[in-house]
TrEMBL record:
The lineage of its organism: Eukaryota, Metazoa, Chordata, Craniata, Vertebrata. It comes from Bubo bubo. This is Histone deacetylase domain-containing protein. Pfam families: Hist_deacetyl. GO terms for cellular component: histone deacetylase complex. GO terms for molecular function: histone deacetylase activity. One of its GO terms (biological process) is epigenetic regulation of gene expression.
Length: 279
């Protein structure tokens, strides 16, 4: 649709399959836009598992394809996985949502598929710094490094990244550096502890539930998504604490204000009391 003349990843996958007799190929598409061309190329091909994480918004975000129920056709049914984020930018998806998608969908299905090589459409327009029309998400560059590190656990580390989307030079540079550090086996900057244990936003939860409900029919390792009870409880308790702290702060502020305002008929500090007239 005008954004590439040659689909490097699709060409590479077909070459590996047809010329080098590679039997099972995993394609992971990180670009914030759905890879409609790649999906179409392998929609009926069971030798290539295509997985895409993308902003979808019920088909209202370009290019409008990539619904969760687009699972492949014929012998390729079940070999097309779309994690189609919905809900716009209220709030935007970030590290928590992408890490959760990898943990609950991508890595389980990928391990079960057991590819001989992994090809990554390394589009970085989901990285923070892109305006809403171009993505508007808040995934950090270092998160992409950690996602790449996870993929290196597959196919004995045979992973190829092809630079694709990205419209902010700083974001592209930072994310590329993070991914190359992962490929080189360098120690990555750790993610904040709260990010690792945080639950996704409600829109992401809805998106993951829809995807896992569909894909669990094809992959026994993919279970219908539900927020872990302990995480939900922890989040609920956190909200309760925040609400309690807010109420306490407001009450304290209210008391302070009342103490600062002299009440009618009260005397100021140091002011002598008037004697009552004698009867």
């Amino acid at each position: 649709m005008g954004f590439c003349f040659f689909n490097s990843i699709a060409i590479t996958a077909k070459y590996l399959r047809d010329k080098l007799n590679i039997g099972k190929i995993l394609i992971v598409d990180l670009d914030v836009h759905h890879g409609n061309g790649t999906q179409q190329a392998f929609y009926a091909d069971p030798s290539i598992l295509y997985v895409s994480l993308h902003r979808y918004d019920e088909g209202n975000f370009f290019p409008g394809s990539g619904a969760p129920n687009e699972v492949g056709s014929g012998p390729g049914e079940g070999y097309n996985i779309n994690i189609a984020w919905t809900g716009g930018l209220d709030p935007p998806m970030g590290d928590v949502e992408y890490l959760t998608a990898f943990r609950t969908v991508i890595m389980p299905a990928a391990n079960e598929f057991d590819p001989e090589i992994v090809l990554v459409s390394a589009g970085f327009d989901a990285v923070e710094g892109h305006d809403p029309p171009l993505g508007g998400y808040k995934v950090t560059a270092k998160c992409f490094g950690h996602l790449t590190k996870q993929l290196l656990k597959l196919a004995d580390g045979r992973v190829v990244l092809a630079l694709e989307g990205g419209h902010d030079l700083t974001a592209i540079c930072d994310a590329s550096e993070a991914c190359i550090n992962a490929l080189l086996g360098n120690e990555l900057e750790p993610l904040p502890e709260d990010i690792v244990h945080q639950i996704p936003n409600m829109n992401a939860i809805a998106s993951l539930k829809k995807t896992t409900e569909i894909q669990s029919k094809y992959w026994k390792s993919v279970e219908p998504y539900s927020v872990p009870v302990d995480c939900a409880l922890a989040e609920s308790q956190k909200q309760e604490r925040e609400e309690t702290e807010t109420v306490s702060a407001m009450a304290s502020l209210s008391v302070d204000v009342e103490q600062c305002i002299p009440q009618e008929g009260s005397r100021a500090a140091g002011e002598p009391m008037e004697e009552e007239p004698a009867l």
